[in-house]
Amino acid sequence: MMISFTNSRSRSLLTLAVSIVAFLIAATGCTEKKTPAENDQSTKADEPPKAEGWHNLVDGDLAQWTNPYPYGEAKLVGEEVHLTANKKFFLVTKEDFANFVFEAEIHLPEGKANSGIMFRCNVEPGKVFGYQAECDGSDRRWSAGLYDEGRRRWIWPSKTGPNAESSQAHFKKPEIAGALKRNDWNLYRITCMGSKIKIELNDVTVTELEDDTDSSGPFGIQHHGEKGQTYRFRNIRVKQLP
Q1: Do 199 and 119 touch, CB atoms closer than 8 A?
Q2: pLDDT band at residue 37, thresholds of 50, 70 and 90?
Q3: Does the pLDDT value for residue 33 go beyond 80?
Q4: Could you say which DSSP state residue 12 is in?
Q5: Rounded Cα–Cα distance for residues 189 and 6 (Å)
Q6: Where are the domains of the chain?
Q7: C-alpha–C-alpha distance, residues 103 and 149, integer Å
């Protein structure tokens, strides 16, 4: 049956009814529940973006690493890598890296302790040698210096040659000598581009020089061999550069 509105009062009622229906439809649309997928997308949009270009070298396991020694234990405890041994050894990455920014945090054990981060290093069965960013737990305080493990030994500071006195004086500066937090986490940042090498410790630039002995190689983290000691590492990541 067709209903016809022929007078002005009827038209007014029709206009009012249409307005009420439009309002109800609009209100329903405003309170419409989002699907779980839509809610998930909204939550993700509010999260801070991941650091662009960074690759985590420990991502829930140690699959990207290997131990070239017949001894030494490496295990993942929460988000930390723990190294224990009675002799010095290095856990190294399976992949080589040439130009990069590398970051890692180190926590030295109490007592006598020394560690470091190998980069562009050389790996053979039972042997790791090459560039090492020093982590010095002694009163000498040469942390973030550049040591050539298994070859030339100290590059910066140097123990001999024309730069010996000035380079060692550099490590006596308060900001350099105090860069390492002995009983806390310490952030190392190593930047390599061609022959240029820069080592920062807790945002303090300690070493900046040029050396072209090695242009590519794995990373490594060190246990210095103190019996019963555990060396801890976390937030190990790299950003490769062109």
Answers
A1: no
A2: very low
A3: no
A4: H
A5: 84
A6: 8-34+37-46, 54-240
A7: 20
The pLDDT of residue 161: 94
pTM: 0.79
- Please list the alpha-helical segments (H only) found in the chain: 8-30, 36-46, 164-170, 174-177
DSSP 166: H
Residue whose C-alpha is closest to residue 221's, from 117, 130, 71 = 117
Helix (H, G, I), strand (E, B) or coil at 83: strand
Contacts of 13 (CB under 8 A, 6+ apart): 5
- Go through the chain and tell me how many residues it has: 242
Q: What fold is seen in the domain 54-240?
A: Jelly Rolls (2.60.120)
Q: What is the pLDDT of residues 171-202, one digit of tens each?
A: 999 999 999 999 999 999 999 999 999 999 99
Q: Are 103 and 189 in contact (CB under 8 A)?
A: yes
User: Taking residues 10-28, what's their average pLDDT?
Assistant: 48
